[in-house]
Specification:
Radius of gyration: 22 Å
Number of strands: 16
Number of helices: 5
Largest sheet: 8 strands, antiparallel
Order of helices and strands: HEEEHEHEEEEEHEEEHEEEE
Structural class: alpha+beta
Length: 373
Amino acid sequence: MRRLTAAVVAALALSVTACTTDSTIPSADRTTAPPEVESHESGPASPIAYGLRVPAGAVQLGPLVRFRSERLIAAYRPELEAVQAEEAAVEAAEEGSEPTETPSTTATPSLRPEGDTFEDLDEPPRPDTFISLMRIDGDPTSVVRRMLAQLTVLLPDAEIETDDLAAYCTQRRERVAGCELDVVGTTPGDRELHVRLTVDPGELSSRTGNVASLERPVMQLWVQYVGDPREGQAQREPEELDDPPSIEDRVERSGWIWPKMDLDAPEDSPVIDGFTPPSSATVLLSSRRSAFASMTTLRASIATEVAERFTSERVDETELQRDVVADLNEVIVTTWAPDDDGNVVRTVHTLSARANYLSLFILPPGQQATDEQ
């Protein structure tokens, strides 16, 4: 298994019973996050993408996950290969020898620090996929409705419902079992986006929350640009959105309530597809629907080893693809490949001065933030 390598030297620091009738969750015994998790939280109003922000009542765990989609990489790979071939020809001419074969952009990397995969281009393409992994600490109904209200402004033609959980959620005995919104629409700035919002309250039958969820619902927001890749890169002006409609004066129509989780799954439980991270990784948040796990590690090498073990147990090494994004503040190493069932197994390792972060995803067929729109 090829090894994920560090690209910068980072300065590292290290809730189907007992429900209320007003759509809130009774306070858990542990009302605050432990210090090792709290230090990696980003509060309400933190930017996500295209003018979206973490809604009041939620916190984002770890950094905003960012990477380049496969279709964006495919759009720019010919240009990259042409530049590399030209550079190789010039170098060969200077040395008086025949040009050597242009190295593949997916070739197994060496163990030395490396730069952006597209660093040979004057303007490497920027990430077009953004994922915010959030824990809902406030009233879940209000938080989900606030997120939906933001999306109505971002995608005004998508006819997103904000006042009825039944539009996107399922229930058991009027307890919310999970939520999913999957929509494609066009922004006021004429950007075509694919948005997928999921909410996982935990396991209703056992009243057990997800690992590291603090017995609270987990919300995951994917936002991916799906218009023409090059046009998307050319649109550098920020999306200017109107204020979202207020949900405070409108009654939510389903009347469903949220189940109270009695405890979290133990810290040494599997977090995704039976995978259990080593004790050297601190799990920040996880979800079963849709499946992800986010963690932080003291050293980049630990995150590298965890990512390698996760992928090596699930995909064919020869099919594993890899991309590196480097900017002033972060280096993002992404790997992905299909498993035997057609799921996409993806790892996103973010190296920053704040910490090392690793997010693991398994996207089933038909539930992926796809490139085929």
